Amino acid sequence: MPTAPSPSSSAAPEPAPGRGPGGVFWRTFLLIAILIGASLGAWYQSFRILERGPRAQQAAQLIVSIVNLTRSALIHSDPEKRRALLIDLAQNEGIRIYPLEETDRLTPLPNQAFLRMIDQYVRTKLGQNTRMTLGVNGQPGLWVSFFIEDDGYWVAFDQSRLDSIPRVQWVGWGAVALALSLLGAVVISRLINLPLKRLATAAVAIGRGGRPEALPAKGPREIRQANASFNAMVADLERIEADRALLLAGISHDLRTPLTRLRLEVEMSPASEEIRNAMSADVEQIDAIIGQFLDYARPLNEHSILSQVDLAALVEGITSARGETETLQITLHREPCALVRGNPTELQRVLLNLIENARRYGLTPGSDVGQLDITVKGGDTPVLEVRDHGPGIPTDELERLKRPFTRRDSARSQADGAGLGLAIIERIARRHHARFDLLLPEDGGLLARITFPKSPSN
User: Of 15, 81, 383, 426, whose CA is between 20 and 30 Å from 157?
Assistant: First the structure.
């Protein structure tokens, strides 16, 4: 069906640059967060190792003081008041005194460096025969032995006396430090990602045919240089586009005058009617090619006024006006309402180009008549489909035929186009932020599909 290509890039809306799990922002944030987490972990381990010795010594000194004071109190107290002293220590200080028996069942200390350091220090101060355990006869607590003459005793008190800083407090401090670090990582990532995001957004705007705002000349030297180079590139592209459009429009306009004279000379020529008809057909073909040049040279104006268009009604109007011809039979499948935001004139040009391409190159094999199915779908993303039942094209030529001034070899012999039909369709689709695709149905032919973005009123 179509023979004239357009730019191969798709005009479907792109996701916002830098967002998503694979964006620059998240990669930078995760890298900084991992480095901060590793630094906090290393700091915590270093702090624990460095403060373990002083804290163990402080806890051991407290245990030694309690044991010595308890032993002195028992030695120098009145035997009649000793029982009351033991009750007072248990109630007010949480210190319990028990006789040491050889049959006592002991709970050994766990293999922890902190407890081993305390045990070693306590034995140094109280004697190597001193025993420290975390339970006696199934009763938990911190138990330390001492002797008065030949009698052995246990001093039992709460194990929490060994903890100088509660674990909950450690967790709270760590959470605050981690939260502040992650907040700093977010700020740093945004500062790094913002210039790249601006550059990516501007590049996407250029790809859609628009004109992005000039990038700011601020920030580090490398960012300023990149922004200045990008702004210069945008200006150069605009100048090249304007010169190209002016050149094509000027050439096409200048050719219209001699074509008008040629038409007049053909009509007044004494040649036979057959020759005059052939010459007139050549003139009309040249005029059609010039019209394609003008359509393709028309610049894309991203800020032009677009209105809400009922695509179904527009397509029905065009197909009704053209009707069926001897070489083309059109079947329309439409939904009641398919609203898009666009320019009615340009959308008509899209449909007319597709119909003309089908008439030229989409004839049913073995027949002089082409069957053309036009489908309009509504919903959140309206779709326009134009399908012929012709010979189709090879799969590897689908993208090549979307380039300007490109036609299939089989179409060159017909010499009735400049290879701009699909290029014009692609440019108009890009201006409407729509996606233009060429597809090959399984049962043959060629399908041209234009998928429009969601209309604000849908």
Answer: 81
